[in-house]
Design a protein that fits this description.
Chain lengths: 184, 111
Amino acid sequence: MLSASEVENLVIRARNGENECFSTLVRAHYRVAYCSALAIVRAAPEAEDVVQDALVSAFTDLESCREPSRFSGWLLTIVRHRALMSLRRRGRVRRMQEAAAAEDPPEPAAQSDVLLRERLLAAAEVLTDRQAEVLFLHDLEGWTHPEIAAVLEISEVLSRQVLFEARKKMRGRLSEPVQEVSHD
Amino acid sequence: MIDPNEKLDLSSLDPVPGDRSLDAVTALLAGRIISARARKMSLWSTLTAYSKWAAALTTATAAAVLFLALSTPSAPAVQPEPDPDVQLLSWADTDAEPTVSEILMVLGDAP
C-alpha cells in the first residue's frame, strides 16, 4: 500500500500530465475500491463494473479532488456513490423483470453448483454495508485498522469492533448447512 | 474453538487474483482514463480558443463604437427658447424695436 504522501505526490504529478502516474494510482486502489463497491452491491460482476466506471470518472475529473492528501477517501466516496446508484438501478430493473415475469412466468432455472464466491457473498448478506466494507478491506485487501480508520473516517477501536462483529456473523452464517433447492 | 481474531479466507472474492490480472485491468483502465482526459482537455482547449476569439471580437467592436462616437462631430447646442414674458419685459425696458418675426416667435406663431 502506498503512503498518504506518496499518493498525494502521484495525484499532483498525474494532474500535471504525467500519465504513468495513473497506472500506479489505479493499481494501488483497484482492490480497495472493489471492496467498497462489493460491500454495497454484493455481486462480484456488478462491483467490478462499478469500480471501473468510478475509477475512470474520478481520474478523468481529478482536478476536483481538492485535497490530494485525502485522495483515497475521496475516491472511495465516489465508488460508494456509484455503487448505491447501481443498486437503485438494479432495483428498478428487478421490479421491471418481476412485472414481466408475473405476466409470462419463465421456466425454472437449472440448479447450479454453489461456488465458494457465491456462498461467501450470500453469507455476507447478513452484514451491514459498513461491516462488509471493513471485513473486505481487512481480510481480503489486507489493510490494517489504522489504514481503514483513516480512509473510512472512523476510530481504530470502532474498526476493530466492526470487524469482530462481521467475522462472528459471517462464521455463524457459513457454519449453517447449505440449503438445497428442491424441484418437486 | 475458532479464534475470533483469525482472518476469514475471502481470497475467492479477489477480483484480480495474481499480479497478471491486476496488471491487465490496470493497463485497461489507465488507457481509458488517459483517453478520457485527452478528450476532456481537447474540449476544454476548443472552448478556451472560442472564448478568446469571442473576447477579442467584443473588444474590437467596443473600440470601434467608441472611436465612432468620439470622431463624430457633436450637434450644436440648442439654445433654449426665451421665456415670452421675460422677452416682452426686455423689449419694454429698452428702446430696441423687435422685428415682426421676433414678435411672432415669442408669441408662438412663428412660421
